[in-house]
Design a protein that fits this description.
about 200 residues, Maf protein, seven-stranded mixed beta sheet, globular, single chain, alpha/beta, 6 helices
Length: about 200
C-alpha cells in the first residue's frame, strides 16, 4: 500500500481499477458541490470538478498525493449525469441506443504542503451502442445496474451486451483512464504498478 496516495472518490470501480495493478490507495471521498456553472462546457465542467475534488481532500491532508476523477457522458453536446430514478435511466439509455456517445473522465492529482503541485488531464472515449429493444431496455433498468452510473449504464456489467464498439480507453468508460493514471503516478515517482499474480488460478 502507498500511504502517500489518497483516492478522493467513493467509487468502488475506481478503487478496483487501481487495485488491478497493485495500487491500494486510501479512500477519502470529497464532499463538494458538483453543480455545473452557467454556460460551462462539458469539458470545462468535468476538469473543474475533478480538480476541486482533489484540492479539497489535499488541503486536509498536507504532503499527501490526492488523486480524484470525474466522469461524464455526452450525447449531442449535452451532458448526461447519473439518473435520479428508473424513468430518467430509461430516458438516458433510450437516447443512447443505436448511436454514438462520448465518455470523458478528467483526473486530477494534487498535493499541498511545501510547494503545491497539481496535474489535470481529461481522456475521452467514443462508445457505440446497438439499437437494443424496448424489452431489453426495460429489463436492464429493472435490474438496477444503472444506479450511480453516468449515462445510466455500466460498460463492465450487463450493459456490455449493448455496446458494439469502444474507440479509446475502456477503463476510462468505467471511471478512470488507468493507462494515463499509471504513467502520471510513475513519472512523479509516487507509486509504481506491481501487476499482482492472478488469484483466480
Amino acid at each position: 500500500m502507498s500511504p502517500a496516495l489518497i483516492l478522493a472518490s467513493a467509487s468502488p470501480r475506481r478503487k478496483e481499477l487501481l487495485a488491478r495493478v497493485g495500487i491500494d490507495a486510501r479512500v477519502l471521498p470529497a464532499g463538494i458541490d458538483e453543480s455545473a456553472l452557467p454556460g460551462e462546457s462539458v469539458m470545462d465542467y468535468v476538469v473543474r470538478v475533478a480538480a476541486e475534488k482533489a484540492r479539497a481532500v489535499a488541503e486536509l491532508n498536507p504532503k499527501a498525493w490526492v488523486l480524484a476523477a470525474d466522469t461524464i457522458v455526452e450525447e449531442g453536446g449535452e451532458a448526461l449525469g447519473k439518473p435520479a430514478d428508473e424513468a430518467s435511466a430509461s430516458a438516458m439509455l433510450g437516447r443512447l441506443r443505436g448511436g454514438v456517445h462520448r465518455v470523458t473522465t478528467a483526473m486530477a492529482l494534487h498535493r499541498t504542503g511545501g510547494e503545491p503541485v497539481a496535474h489535470t488531464q481529461a481522456v475521452t472515449t467514443e462508445v457505440h451502442m446497438r439499437a437494443f429493444s424496448d424489452a431489453e431496455l426495460a429489463a436492464y433498468v429493472a435490474g438496477g445496474e444503472w444506479r450511480g452510473k453516468a449515462g445510466g449504464y455500466a460498460v463492465q456489467g450487463m450493459a456490455a451486451a449493448f455496446v458494439t464498439e469502444v474507440r479509446g480507453s475502456i477503463s476510462n468508460v468505467i471511471g478512470l483512464p488507468l493507462a494515463e493514471v499509471v504513467v502520471l503516478l510513475e513519472s512523479l515517482a509516487i507509486v509504481s504498478p506491481s501487476y499482482p499474480a492472478d488469484q483466480a488460478h
